[in-house]
Amino acid sequence: MDRGTERDAPPSRGAGSGAPHAASEASAASPRQEGGGGPADAARVPLAVVVVDREGLVSHWSTGARRLFGVAKEEAIGRPAIDLLPVSGALPEPDDDLPGGGYGGHGGYEDIAAYDGLGPGLDSSLDRGLGYPAAGRARLTVPGRDRDRDRVDVLWWAYPLVGPGTERLLVLAADAAGLRQDEPAAPLAVERIAPAFALHTDFPGAAELARRLPEILPSMSVGESARIVGQVLELGYPVLEFSQNDRVPVTPDWGVARRVERRARRERAARAVAEGTPTPQEPDDEGEDLEYVAVRERLEFLNEVSGKIGTSLDLSRTILEVSRAVVPRFTDVAGTYLREQVVAGEGFPDGVPDTTTMWHRVAVEHTDEPGRWDDVVPVGEAMPFPAHTPFFQCMTTGRPVLVPRISERMGHAIASQFEKRDIRPLITGRSMLVVPLKARNVVLGFMILLRHPERALFNDMDRVTGAELAARAGLVLDNARMYTHQESVAETLQDSMLPHIPPRMAGCDIATRYLPGTLLGRVGGDWFDSVKLPGARTALVVGDVMGHGLNSAAMMGQLRTAVQTMAALDLPPSQLLRNLDDLAQRLGDTYLATCLYAVYDPIVGELHLANAGHIPPVLVRAADGRSELLDLPTGAPIGVGGVPFEAVRVRVEPGDRLVMCTDGLVEVRGEDIGVGLATLCESAAHPAASMDDACDTIIRSLAATFSEAARGGRKDDVALLMTRLNGIAPDDVAEWRFPLDPAEVGRARAVVREQLHDWSLERLADAAELMVSELVTNAVRHSRQNPVALRLVRGDTLLCEVEDDDHELPTLLSAGPGDASGRGLRVVSTLAREWGTSRTGAGKSVWFELTLPRR
After folding, report:
1. DSSP one-letter code for 763
2. pLDDT tens digits for 177-223?
3. Percent of the chain with pLDDT over 90
4. Cα separation of 169 and 160, whole Å?
5. What share of the chain is helix, strand, coil (3-state, %, to 5)?
6. Are residues 413 and 391 in contact, defined by beta-carbon separation less than 8 angstroms?
7. What does the pLDDT read at residue 180?
8. Fold of 26-197
9. How far apart are CA 559 and CA 666, in angstroms?
């Protein structure tokens, strides 16, 4: 019997955009299949294939349907199915009074006998358990056929379609005359007639589909691909809906027809026929659709990649996003190279790169087995590229370079750049595309894209796609590079403005923390500081310039420098804040600042504090572990002007801790600052192994307290300074006063030597005696009326201070061979570990330190 092939079966919605559709040969099988020798012996006749949508309109009308029913495809599409098909029980019927379901006379058909089931003498498919919702047999008159053969005996089957699409019914129909046995008089044996599908079809490309499906959907398992291929090509059930979330390769020649536009064209053609007007000439659907789909796929791909890259401004993360966005959908291997200066966050000279430019391999993504590329082309390697390579051509011209297939010769030339590593097996035979990563007409790097030999070669459309991809990726990388550079500049600026405080000062231990806010990078106006003062005292400062950004940081730098300068003058805390407020007024009224200034005297055991609008400090008592907010006169912020400042004195004991911080630690917008201050007091009193651990405990406690309120992150900077007030024992301090008599210089040398002997510091006696002699001599010579004071303090170092009532500070002079004076401070500068001068309320102080010998 005749074997027919249904070549224009309805397109399936499958595998996402770009998936091919396939139709198997649909046929009706006669009883001779039962005893035959398999598919080769089976009788087959062509089937008409019709698809009906949810509105009851025909959405697909095959060539077989045109031959069987005599209605052209343009006339059938969009018409009600009940006007064209002898289907009973599967569609709403417009006229229930007609025999057999009301199909008589519709669409030019006559004498239709339709049955629920298979008709008289036929076994119902439902009864046989095949699950067909409706089937039937009808004799109808087909317009346009030979009058002797105008009545056709039709068998039909209706299958329900379930899915999210608009199609709701698949109708198959066959001419029953084709199923008769060879003898003309033999009756039609139709007891077991049902639609069947050939195991081996004449569909072009069927074998190719079975082989290529796992490559079309690379993430599909072998079992899943075998099931789908078996369903389509062997069992004959069409795949009308298939969901696949993984990425599929982008190729220029795959696509599905624009069904809506094609249907609209068919409807226009059908209306033209019905109205008797000429059919509009429209371009070829298939060729235009494939070209349209190819372009659409690339636009969708580029849009998808654009959404996946640039999710952060971290350079390393951006590099990985760019590499992973193209593998495996666009390429199988992607290697990213960047300029050395880009990786380092530095600038680079103008002009195109040359053969000396170093390129860092920053990422390698591939679909090969793990480890295959890692040893040969490790990430982090830096290398130049010679002029004869396609990579050099790409980075100098700034244009993509396409190599359809890497030959043996080119593979050898490229492999010569990799010493003692044979890269030829990895690249030879593959298609290669080199695309530049550039932004603002500057080449930052390039990407090497390789496809497996089995995959389609890169072509001109891929070159355009790669160029657009590289342009977007280059801009994202340049933004990340500039952000990284600016962040580095901000951190350098902030670090340069914040002091590096030694962990130990005279009579105290210090720990600090600075946490930048989340606004405007890492630059802010918070600061802390400590200044060494005469008398083994230490000034402790915490301040906060209101606002964020570079302007606040610049203002902070000026105020911090002013505080250091005025602290060196040994001004009282209230007077220092008064002078600082005057300075802020002269600098301008744009910014305000708060400041807390404290002077710790470890010998007396006292804190002298003044506050300018800052949050109060916390004092933790060592005796009982109790913590308290010190009650200080608040004062007005620096920059308000015309407001007095008051200072208070607080007695402290050895082991007490003073905690000073900015409001960013204890205050969150919308929350009561009292909650933060209470948490600060509680966490500050928590015992810790070290000062650093104590600072970390405070920060963690405050972060946990405001974790729910500050979901958007901490907006303000945090400066934290904690000081353990160890004090200096009276036995470690020795003081003397000498009348203004040059003879007292000898006594000063003697008492120093004796005291150092008592402290078991004889090794320092000679140097200390010589320097004390020089300083006391100068003090006696320049002092006006008050006695000269000498103090020795034993702590981490040996501190010696000489005070007199002369306000003029001595200077270091260059004494010649004939000069009788000017060598005293030169001796001190040479022998002392550190030395300095400062003014006091009564005059001046000159001091030096010596390093204690190791015990």
Report:
1. G
2. 766 544 444 444 444 455 544 444 445 555 565 556 656 655 555 56
3. 22
4. 5
5. 35, 25, 45
6. no
7. 57
8. Beta-Lactamase (3.30.450)
9. 23
As a whole number of angstroms, the distance between CA 798 and CA 794 comes to 5
Token pair of 446 as six digits: 């390039």
CA nearest neighbour of 113 among 124, 132, 99: 99
Instruction: Look at 393 and 307; give whichever has higher pLDDT.
Output: 393
Amino acid identity of residue 650, one-letter, is V
Burial class (CB in 10 A: 0-12, 13-18, 19+), 782: middle
Q: Which residues pair with 211 in a beta bridge?
A: none
| pLDDT exceeds 50 at position 491 | yes
Q: Which two tokens stand for residue 185?
A: 């008089």
Return the CATH superfamily for domain 309-488: GAF domain (3.30.450.40)
Give the helix/strand (H/E) hosting 538. strand 537-548
Taking residue 19's Cβ as centre, other Cβ atoms within 10 Å add up to 20
From CA 411, how far away is CA 426, in angstroms rounded? 9
Q: Are 358 and 346 in contact (CB under 8 A)?
A: no
> Cα angle vertex 821, ends 818, 824, to 5°?
125
Which structure tokens are listed for 507?
């009579």
Question: Residue 600: what residue type?
Answer: Y
Q: Report the number of secondary-structure helices (H) and strands (E) in the chain.
A: 20, 30
State pLDDT tens for residues 239-278.
Answer: 655 555 544 444 333 333 344 555 666 677 777 777 777 6
Query: Is pLDDT at 403 greater than 50 in this prediction?
Result: yes
Q: Specify the amino acid at residue 449.
A: L
Q: How far is C-alpha 749 from the chain's CA centre?
A: 69
Evaluate whether 619 touches 651 at the Cβ level (below 8 Å). Answer: no
Question: Who's near 113: CB < 8 A, 6+ residues apart?
Answer: 99, 100, 119, 137, 138, 139
pLDDT digits (tens, 9 = 90+) for 516-546: 775 555 667 889 999 998 888 999 999 998 8
Cα–Cα nearest to 250, from 196, 321, 331: 331
- Spatial distance between the Cα atoms of 3 and 114, rounded to a whole number of angstroms: 27
Tell whether domain 730-851 is in CATH 3.40.50.150: no
Q: What is the percent of the chain with per-residue pLDDT over 70, rounded to a whole number?
A: 70
Coil, strand or helix: which one is 219?
coil
- CA distances to 175, 453, 604, 737 from 801, in Å: 121, 84, 16, 12
Query: Whole-angstrom Cα distance, residue 379 to residue 373?
Result: 10
Sheet of 44-46: strand order equals 44-46, 26-29, 194-197
* Higher per-residue pLDDT: 754 or 145: 754
Per-domain boundaries in the chain: 26-197, 309-488, 498-725, 730-851
CA separation (Å) from 410 to 446, 454, 460, 466?
19, 19, 20, 21
Topology adopted by domain 498-725: Phosphatase 2c; domain 1 (3.60.40)
85-109 pLDDT per residue, tens: 876 555 654 444 333 333 333 333 3
Mean pLDDT computed over 785-791: 92
Q: How far is CA 428 from CA 126, 327, 424, in A?
A: 60, 19, 5
67 and 48 in contact (C-beta within 8 Å)? yes
Distances (CA, A) of 169 to 56, 57, 113: 9, 10, 21
Q: Are 26-197 and 309-488 the same fold in CATH?
A: yes
What is the Cα–Cα distance from 228 to 439, expressed in whole angstroms? 46
